[in-house]
Fold this protein.
Amino acid sequence: MSNTFGKIFTFTSFGESHGRAIGGIIDGCPPLVEIDEAFIQYELDRRRPGQSDITTPRREDDRVEFLSGIFEGRTTGTPIAFVIWNGNQRSTDYDHLREVYRPSHADFTYQQKYGIRDHRGGGRSSARETAARVVAGAIAKLALRQAGIEITAYTSQVGHIAMTLPADRIDPSEIEKNIVRCPQPEIAEQMIDYIRQLKAEGDSIGGIVTCVVKHLPAGWGNPIFDKLSTRLAQAMFSINAVHGFDYGMGWDGVALKGSEQNDAFMTKEGKITTATNRSGGIQGGISNGQDVYFRVLFKPVATIAKCQHTVDVHGQEVLLEAHGRHDPCVLPRAVPVVEAMAAIALMDFYMLAHG
Amino acid sequence: MSNTFGKIFTFTSFGESHGRAIGGIIDGCPPLVEIDEAFIQYELDRRRPGQSDITTPRREDDRVEFLSGIFEGRTTGTPIAFVIWNGNQRSTDYDHLREVYRPSHADFTYQQKYGIRDHRGGGRSSARETAARVVAGAIAKLALRQAGIEITAYTSQVGHIAMTLPADRIDPSEIEKNIVRCPQPEIAEQMIDYIRQLKAEGDSIGGIVTCVVKHLPAGWGNPIFDKLSTRLAQAMFSINAVHGFDYGMGWDGVALKGSEQNDAFMTKEGKITTATNRSGGIQGGISNGQDVYFRVLFKPVATIAKCQHTVDVHGQEVLLEAHGRHDPCVLPRAVPVVEAMAAIALMDFYMLAHG
Amino acid sequence: MSNTFGKIFTFTSFGESHGRAIGGIIDGCPPLVEIDEAFIQYELDRRRPGQSDITTPRREDDRVEFLSGIFEGRTTGTPIAFVIWNGNQRSTDYDHLREVYRPSHADFTYQQKYGIRDHRGGGRSSARETAARVVAGAIAKLALRQAGIEITAYTSQVGHIAMTLPADRIDPSEIEKNIVRCPQPEIAEQMIDYIRQLKAEGDSIGGIVTCVVKHLPAGWGNPIFDKLSTRLAQAMFSINAVHGFDYGMGWDGVALKGSEQNDAFMTKEGKITTATNRSGGIQGGISNGQDVYFRVLFKPVATIAKCQHTVDVHGQEVLLEAHGRHDPCVLPRAVPVVEAMAAIALMDFYMLAHG
Amino acid sequence: MSNTFGKIFTFTSFGESHGRAIGGIIDGCPPLVEIDEAFIQYELDRRRPGQSDITTPRREDDRVEFLSGIFEGRTTGTPIAFVIWNGNQRSTDYDHLREVYRPSHADFTYQQKYGIRDHRGGGRSSARETAARVVAGAIAKLALRQAGIEITAYTSQVGHIAMTLPADRIDPSEIEKNIVRCPQPEIAEQMIDYIRQLKAEGDSIGGIVTCVVKHLPAGWGNPIFDKLSTRLAQAMFSINAVHGFDYGMGWDGVALKGSEQNDAFMTKEGKITTATNRSGGIQGGISNGQDVYFRVLFKPVATIAKCQHTVDVHGQEVLLEAHGRHDPCVLPRAVPVVEAMAAIALMDFYMLAHG
């Protein structure tokens, strides 16, 4: 079950980066959702490697093939299985890594846990697996759209370079206008320059993706252990390289007092609302009808082109030789993955609300 | 199920702050664990209100009564139910809040979700509920102790006042020596002064609890959606007022490159280990045998003594009058709750490892 | 989790027959259900020992005490915890059974599984635990009643004595008119005589409880692994001594051909219905709007007053001495338990349908 | 989640009978299990249509293609995804059923529940889906074999024709020697003749499959709601056309007294065992180390060649024309499905026992 997310609308993921295919099964999808294949491909393209000079130059032509659960263009309520075939992989490219534990990768821990692992391209622990989530997330988005809910993520920080615009002031149409997916153009430029520089150095860098969910009705989320905030955190920590999550003011509010963080209730056009939204639209784990916003912290990708010391499975010292073709910064490609996981996470609450 | 945590070792919580009792059921506890009642009471006492002048002066004499699952001092493998009786509550004390939505509390969202709520002392959304978790956590700790695993949390930041000692340099025996539970005495003093000052102002403040898990075997945690990191995050976000979580370098490493964050593998005394532990003992969601450490961000308690603007259930403006008896800073009392939830979260992996 | 039933509306049970108390937690109950305490007590009284001369003469004055989840007489959507206190038990009464494995009881298997057990009165494996289910079932019934759904069970066979009236011809008002709860008076009399005879012999007997669910809407049940039939079967096999379950024609139809069992569709008053209901109201695991009916097979209670050969925990032969106070036939008291578990089982589907 | 079985070792099924493919994902499989592809194909062949003149003459060349989770011939602990491609289907063959509700099929209930359905060949409700379970079951069997556990099912009754040999007296090597899979040759012959006669009549018949699990260790199964018996029942009721389940003496013992059904404990070669095994190897929901045996009741297949009255989606009367190619009796092909589901059901307990 550790490869399944959700309880009512569930997504089960499978596949290794250099196996036959990756893919998954969506179970519990509401029936009669129109499958917009062009939209699904658009989402996959946003995640695809090789999309710009600041992502890995690897080419993966990710096309999804649906196997079940869709009839004459609409979902039927039965499981939606799909595959994304892996291209012709030259497995021998990875022979030198068969017995090597790459620093800060999952090679060692998988071997400790399972006593066996597919070493090719990281196998199951490869971020290639997230392509399957983007497919499931796209279908979740199509369902959520029926309820008017919009999910928008963007790169808000790369290394030390951070946006200065707050989440409620951005123009979403700016996000896709640059290759780093940051809606503040002048900052985007600095980020891109910095990533190019690190690429040249053979190094990598992390950063922050911010995500905003708009038009979420009040009442979603189940206290105590299945809060809206918890489910979103759970969704985000499943993404490769994620090491932190906060919502509302989060880490930025650590020095602020209660009187500076409380959101006063007020009445506006006959409806109860809040004067501010410092708590990120969630109280007691339940949405309050305001925008939900949260941040996801990515550490730098562990694969770097620099030479590193490590050991092999026998404990012998190994000098890990530099190889190309990694992402110097995973954030531009992580943006659609954050959106996809947020959409999947929201679907259980959608199902409970819509029956 | 939203009041149940875990899959194999599960804890189900119940109770409102001014109802008859709070408590819970632990299911799936391994048999033959010796129940050390003094230890359980010690843990409850660390969480108890009124323990110092920087916590709420409310007196709750929290004593646990076990109803099942224990036979002649040892667990039997059957469900362990327990209650903590609520004292004689003067419910009329809360009559003025019956129709008022307190800012940044869960009053409004519970009402939106359920159409009814127990308004007395926050009802189900009160942090009083966490006392039940401390009991379950104490039993989890007793089981984990058999496997040599130790969990230690402490207050590492209050408002702007942060410890300077890193997690791997602290002396755990210092934690309980001061009332704020910070193992760096000179910082602890500043924290205490600051909390006293805010108490006088009728305001509140948040901060950070750091937690370290020692002697965790390699191989705990299940990729992709049930990582060790995910489960810990899930545990922490269930705690009242938690708005952020990170592990390893986390937020502190946002500006550091891959070459500065990777942990090189090395062999030491015939065993594979890592030269550094920047990733917090987890790779690919699985423990690597190093210490696991993480941080939990608490926002300031929403209850403050200052006068606040808000509305009632009819949308009418209300001036919320100041009342005493809140915690100016929840962190000293949150420390045992963080430990308890960490212990509960680890038990599923313990059960899978120990069969 | 093995003491929890359900996924959305869940019931978690605790308690040993001679421990402090039995009880449970209902989680996911819809809010605003009126708690009719007299009805709950009525249901408990139907299950209570000592209610007639054909049940055990043990007196248990089962009264439920609610601890949470109810506010001013209505459910709040938060966990409903409750206890039924065990009376003053003379534990020493059971000292002679401390090391003995009673034939066809769970003494041996609990000991093998857990290495420890509460031997007093069967401990956790005692049917006393079902009283807690009757409480949860009563609340489920109150919620289902809002949707017009009625659940009626009755004793349809005791040993070789079987009713001749089919389920769709019974008069439910006859059930509570006799102590064996059989709605065919002349058969009821034979059953009662037979049970009295077995009681005198110090023996026990099993039989069949039939249950009918009326006014269930079409569309409840989730294929493939969570069918309505599966969930009902799961609910029934959790009851002590249940060894069989069928629905629709079930075992009675084993020799009938497809052409003799198919239910033809027809239109009646503008609505699609079926001419017959041999399939028990379920097709492909989903309700079709007809009555759902099923049967539950109980084996004889393992406790008999006759002298039996067995062994103790050391493998030494023991002659198990006769003791009184058992139920010669569990069926009259099982009827409310079957109804309760059916009600609990239906609630998940209710929640999915009502959101 | 209704297409997922199990909690630790889970199987998620997908696919419609005339869609692109059927298949599934096994999650939580222990690593290092050798994948014997010939054995898996052998199991599929036992379920395959067209295997004899008493099964449907449809030809489905069921071959499994594994997509993930297997590396160099062994499982890796990661999800095992597989597909069985559907052959070239002539969808137009089913156009006349597009708007017709076939009697006692799931057409009507799917339409009521989802508002849409794939009408071709029963779509998701087709028994074709069980081929995927046979693959998952074969892998479960390979894992269980490591623990010495053997699962054997056979046809014990067809219509009124029942075996006279009890389960503990059969010779398993006889099962595959005849096309009805009944280990009592003279009865098998009668069954086959009867099925041929019904086939000629255009009718169908049900019956009973008996299953025996040998060498199961004591201690498997979790009271109260996750008993070994419950899990087996749950597994069996998921199979198409199953309407009954019993274990131990079950229905055959309904007229027997407690003194006639209790299994006396005794010591044999220094080990505690039982003199008889009327309870089917399970007490209190936990295995006792004896053989576990149970029976599964199948109603006749709803598809018959006889002309039937029914209605279409508009409620108009329709005369359903006779078509060939159905199974007159599903039992011979159900035998491997019963074994597969039993194997899958046991794996959770295996995982809990083996860690």
